[in-house]
Amino acid sequence: CVTADVQAACQDTTVTQELLKEGFHRDLLVKVELGEDAGGCAVAAQMRLPPGIYVDPYELATLQQHNLTKAVLFPDAIDVEAPEYLAGGLLLLLFLEPEARCSRCFRAAVPVHARYHRPARGTEEALVVLGSPEVLLCCCHSHLSAECWEPAEVDAPCSSDTTSPCQWHSTKHRPAHEESMLRVPVGLREHSSLVCALTLLTTGLCAGLILAAACKYGHF
């Protein structure tokens, strides 16, 4: 690794995140601009995903096989079918790639999926709030300023391609930036009686048709 002077990064580091596409299946785009050139350093964004949103580990493994994204997911075993109220939060370490036209700029995207929520009263949507990512740096043989950077408790290598441990550092003074919100459609509790009645009626009708067909064409 090449020694990098990132002493002023904590003063000017900016982080933006954006949810692309619409619906339950989105892309989370993260952009980071450091205060100075961080050549030779690995840059990552650590995000705590709430129970209302998740990353599919099987989809992530496929994307990593094709070098379309690099990330580490904790825990790596996830119930992708669980609703929001039965799921837990996730920790995602997303490795960022440098941008060609900016030596201080890094970015990466990862697919995320919204979970089904409980029906609500008086509203047709639930809000899933994504907190701001934490910027992490891993610089081999670099001496980061103690005033700007501090060791981070991250048990992950400097790259998704290696397994050797790495000492990550995080900024002490995180910049101010807005949280992202995902609006998830939910059912109305006021419609529960109607939905139950229609479901029961449809189930009975289908069962009757199946029974009639069995009696007419079946051999007993």
TrEMBL record:
* Pathway the protein takes part in: Glycolipid biosynthesis; glycosylphosphatidylinositol-anchor biosynthesis
| Transmembrane parts of this sequence | 192-215
Name of the protein in question: Phosphatidylinositol-glycan biosynthesis class X protein
Major localization class: endoplasmic reticulum
Q: Which GO terms describe its cellular component?
A: endoplasmic reticulum membrane
Top-level taxon in the UniProt lineage: Eukaryota
Member of which family? Answer: Belongs to the PIGX family.
What is the organism field in this record? Helopsaltes ochotensis (Middendorff's grasshopper-warbler)
